[in-house]
Design goal:
Among the domains are: 148-188; 189-304, inner membrane protein cigr (Nuclear Transport Factor 2, Chain: A, Roll). 55% of the residues lie in helices and 8% in strands. The chain has helices at 2-29, 33-52, 72-104, 112-143, 151-188, 190-196, 199-209, and strands at residues 231-234, 238-241, 281-286, 289-294, 300-304. 8% of the residues are buried.
């Protein structure tokens, strides 16, 4: 607070001495208000006296020629006349153009011989244009790649193509018949396998030599935890999904096992005491059944039902 008071006192000490000469000068220069008013009154009275006195007559200047300007009604009249003239000119131009077009048209009043000549000329012109178009089409056809132009040739080609397809189908059918015949002859050899291997005897001997729960200690059944709906268990492979149409379905000797089960093959057939599979056959596992199938088409040669006691 003291500091601010000291600053204010210092500023006043410098400002007051500097402002005092300015105030004196303003008082000397400023005029009196009464004198100003008196001067204004005298000026007004002089102006009024000048207005009331008659003006002095100036020297007459030389007379100048007066330019007469048309009154507004006369101007409008001239504009109307100009527009009428322009319209008249345009009408005459249109008439001339129509006349020229009429002159260019064929004279209908010409004699019949002249009109007949004109018709013949137009016909000739049309005929020439048609011939030109035909020639252009012929040229485009020649530029196209070569194609059999004759319909008979195309029909013969189609017949030959159909005949080839029939022959191919006949050959395929013959090949399938030969394959079936060969497979039947090969399956005759499977009778020897059935004579040396009896599935019922194998199941009785296996169950007699092994206990009921022998598979629980086998590493191949390590992941088995019971029956699951929609799944089969294959030793060594685990659970796998089965389509609904194949669930709880069994196949007999002479049927064809679906290919979805061919991959679950039983290669260690010696461990289980199974018979040696003939060449081109394999043992496969489907649920708790064992099938001996043909590797070519899945033909079932022998079946062991309920091989395992779950």
């Amino acid at each position: 607070m003291k500091r601010s008071l000291m600053v204010a006192a210092a500023v006043a000490a410098f400002v007051v001495p500097a402002a005092s000469p300015l105030t004196v000068l303003a008082q000397e220069v400023a005029p009196d208000r009464g004198e100003v008013r008196e001067q204004r009154r005298e000026a007004r009275a002089a102006a009024r006296a000048e207005l009331s006195s008659p003006p002095a007559q100036p020297a007459s200047p030389a007379p100048q020629p007066r330019i007469e300007r048309p009154s507004p009604p006369e101007v409008r009249q001239e504009r109307r006349e100009d527009r009428r003239e322009n319209r008249q000119e345009r009408r005459e131009d249109r008439r001339d153009n129509r006349q020229e077009r009429r002159d260019d048209r064929p004279d209908r009043s010409a004699p019949p011989e002249v009109r007949q000549d004109r018709r013949e000329n137009r016909r000739d012109n049309r005929q020439e244009r048609r011939e030109d178009r035909r020639e252009n089409r012929e040229e485009r056809r020649e530029d196209r790649p070569s194609r059999p132009d004759n319909r008979q040739e195309r029909r013969e080609e189609r017949r030959e193509f159909r005949q080839d397809r029939r022959e191919n189908r006949q050959e395929r059918r013959q090949d399938r018949r030969e394959d079936r015949q060969e497979r039947r002859e090969d399956r005759r050899d499977y009778r020897e396998f059935r004579q040396r291997f009896n599935s019922d005897q194998w199941r009785r001997d296996w169950n007699r030599r092994h206990g009921r729960d022998w598979w629980r200690s086998d590493r191949r059944w390590r992941g088995y935890s019971g029956i699951r709906l929609g799944f089969y268990f294959a030793p060594g492979y685990g659970y796998y999904n089965v389509p609904r149409s194949y669930w709880n379905q069994t196949w007999q000797v002479g049927d064809y096992l679906p290919s979805i089960f061919w991959r679950y093959r039983l290669d260690d057939w010696r461990t289980y005491g199974l018979g040696y599979p003939p060449e081109g056959t394999r043992w496969v596992l489907v649920d708790n059944h064992i099938y001996l199938i043909d590797e070519y088409d899945g033909y079932i040669i022998d079946v062991i039902y309920d091989a395992w006691n779950w």
